[in-house]
UniProtKB/TrEMBL annotation:
<feature type="domain" description="TonB-dependent receptor plug">
    <location>
        <begin position="158"/>
        <end position="235"/>
    </location>
</feature>
<keyword id="KW-0813">Transport</keyword>
<dbReference type="InterPro" id="IPR039426">
    <property type="entry name" value="TonB-dep_rcpt-like"/>
</dbReference>
<keyword id="KW-0472">Membrane</keyword>
<dbReference type="InterPro" id="IPR008969">
    <property type="entry name" value="CarboxyPept-like_regulatory"/>
</dbReference>
<keyword id="KW-0812">Transmembrane</keyword>
<dbReference type="Pfam" id="PF07715">
    <property type="entry name" value="Plug"/>
</dbReference>
<keyword id="KW-0675">Receptor</keyword>
<dbReference type="GO" id="GO:0015344">
    <property type="term" value="F:siderophore uptake transmembrane transporter activity"/>
</dbReference>
<dbReference type="GO" id="GO:0009279">
    <property type="term" value="C:cell outer membrane"/>
</dbReference>
<dbReference type="Pfam" id="PF13620">
    <property type="entry name" value="CarboxypepD_reg"/>
</dbReference>
<keyword id="KW-1134">Transmembrane beta strand</keyword>
<protein>
    <submittedName>
        <fullName>TonB-dependent receptor</fullName>
    </submittedName>
</protein>
<feature type="signal peptide">
    <location>
        <begin position="1"/>
        <end position="21"/>
    </location>
</feature>
<keyword id="KW-0732">Signal</keyword>
<dbReference type="InterPro" id="IPR041700">
    <property type="entry name" value="OMP_b-brl_3"/>
</dbReference>
<dbReference type="Pfam" id="PF14905">
    <property type="entry name" value="OMP_b-brl_3"/>
</dbReference>
Amino acid sequence: MHTRRFFFIVSFLLAVISAKGQQLPTNQSNSTAKGQITSTLVDSTTHLPVPFATVALLSETGTILTGQTTNDAGHFTFSELALGTYGLQITYVGYQPRILTGLSLTSSQPVRSLGRLLLRPESRQLNEVRVTSQKALIEEKSDRLVYNAGSDITNKGGTAVDVLRKAPMLTVDVSGNVQIRGSSSIKVLLNGRPSGLLARNLSEALKMIPANTIQSVEVITSPAARYDAEGAGGVINIITKKQLKGSNGSLDVTAGNYVQSLGGSYGLKRDKFGLTFSGNTNAEREKSIIDVTRTSLVNGQTAGELFQRTSANNIHPGWFGDLSMEYAFDTLNRVNLSISSWGGAWPTSNTGFYRFRNAENRVTQEYNQVVDQQNPFGNIEGNLAYTRAFRKPKQELSFLGQYSYTFDNSHYSSNQFSLTEQPLYRETSTNRSHNPQWTWQIDYIHPFSRNGQQVFEVGAKMVRRDVSSLYEVYTSQPDNVALLLLSTDRSNTFTYDQQVAAGYASLKLVNRTFWTLQLGTRLENTTMSGQFKHSISPFRVQFTNFIPSIILSKQLTEQQSVKLTYTQRISRPMIWDLNPYINASDPKNLMAGNRQLRPELAHLTEISYSLTTPKGAYLNLALYRRQTDNSIDDVRSVDTSGVSLTTRQNVARNERTGLNINAAGQLGRNWKINGGGEFYYAQFNSPALQVQNSGWLWQFTLNLAYQLPRQYTLQANGIYSTGWILLQGKNSAWYDYSLAVRKEFWDKKANLTLGINNPFTYPFRQQNESQSATFRAYTANQYFTRSLKLTFSWQFGQVRSAPDEPVRKITNDDTRSK
């Protein structure tokens, strides 16, 4: 039913677009009355295309008539022009402006193809100049939507969580959990490469990255073949701010009641050599109160009822440092080396009250509990890349390697007391995990045409992960609470190996009528094996996935385009999904891995339409459908004593059909506005559990910015969501909003930003209802998110503007976080 409805909507939208496209030949029916100017911009030094440069069409008297930006291949075309004489004005940051005049279109020569136009890099010295122009908050590129976080002052003093909350097509709840169109199976990259930190606990790891360092966020919902197939939802690429040529740095200090941070960077970049260091330390506070009422069921009848209230108030400290070096032997050969390290702790300590009533409604358990849970971690990784460019634009060969080592330890101690403060039960546990990882990759790009529009890509990759987990549990004895003894049936050593070998090929074709077809295929072979020191039998699984991808797009006019995509994605279970270690820090709410997990497969289809007006207004509509077979979902069961066990299982199929809307523009001279929304239908179906859950949902985001005199800027941001559907339940609506004011001074080299989050909400409340054959539960969450922060930012040094050189680094994007 829903499938037929989806394809009916797709057919209708295609018919509308087709009708729109068929109107163009009518305007061009008299070929002698219309003309065209077309060309490709290239760098005069490297002879590589210059994408996203601004090209303005001038009248014979020099008046600007219209404008556009070059595409990925540096190409632009002005069509439907009346016969006459025109000029072009070409500008781009880091290049010398160029103006062409006397371009005549006549009946005998209505088309002017200017071939390749050379742009010369700007090399003059600037004395402590700051680039103050701002990009639009939302931009569309050939295969992704880009949120330019550097243009959003409400991010000042925040973390990457605050930034992702405002990016298109992403949902970040009040706990920091990230989803793309409802899927938490995503790949998150940092500057196009993976991070061991981001792979383990995404919501916590994002709090380590200061928002001040983020330039943009790229959201890729239909990744091409060059991306790893891992991640059913898609790819998020976080781009940090780049180093300009020269010697310069920055300092950022934030003070607030919920977040404090100190960070900075310094870089030195010459013609052939570049060195950049950045570092940050921060601490973020999380405070919450959670009430749970859960009824145990046997054959539909009440077998007991648990009430619990837990309160948490934790400080999460963390730090990171990154050292990057690059050297260009000449214009065609360069090498990049980067070393980064992360560290911190994620305490989740809490206090709680528990009361359990049996089937006769008598209180059989009533106690207080104190849990001290610590999770210190550390990561160090190195990337080495060599890139060989060729004289032909876009032709490139690269070799990449990466080594990453992560330790991820956890420890908890749980103590139960009677209401008269007498000790009842004690338990402690440690889990020491180590994860070394090697990656090798080779990529080759071969253009078939001088303009770089016909491109063939091919590559191969190998990943090896060797993970170990040593866990031990000690419990007290009924006759001696002070004595802790090893629980042998809950202690073990788990070693896990994973190898992924992949190869891909992709072909991109563009014709003269502005149709673009990109076909790709990726073949991945995965081997997973696990061994235990005692009691549990080993396992070994091997599988091969053939992943196709198709992207078909059409430039309808200079301002309008349409795109249709299809691809498949897979999600492999990682060690924390497979490890049978039971986390019993809360004895009434157990969590464990499942070594029987197998990968899930998702099918993604999307059709989108985009419009950009000459005045810069932007609109994107995307109709999509995602179907995930054998999906990995959290499944909870509850016994008659009120104890729940949550594991991940391959027991369901989930589907999601929706419409995304993203828009941006300017109201008057000083107002900027952008926002987006999503309306979708989600459905879960598990014959194994005899569970079905579905519903219609929507969400909406809005950003407003107003430029005041005397270098003041006001900005506001808000999001509202009706909640989300889960396999066994549903969450209620939630919202988040922030306000900020910024004052620039010292020649715009420094600024102060005062921000406040949720000033009229204390606390924020959210409910969750869930049920299955063994339980029925109601959860009331209170999150304390009202916060105030003041951020001082200072940029210093001398710079020379220069075109950015692409830096190739390993993109181990098969790692995901769920």
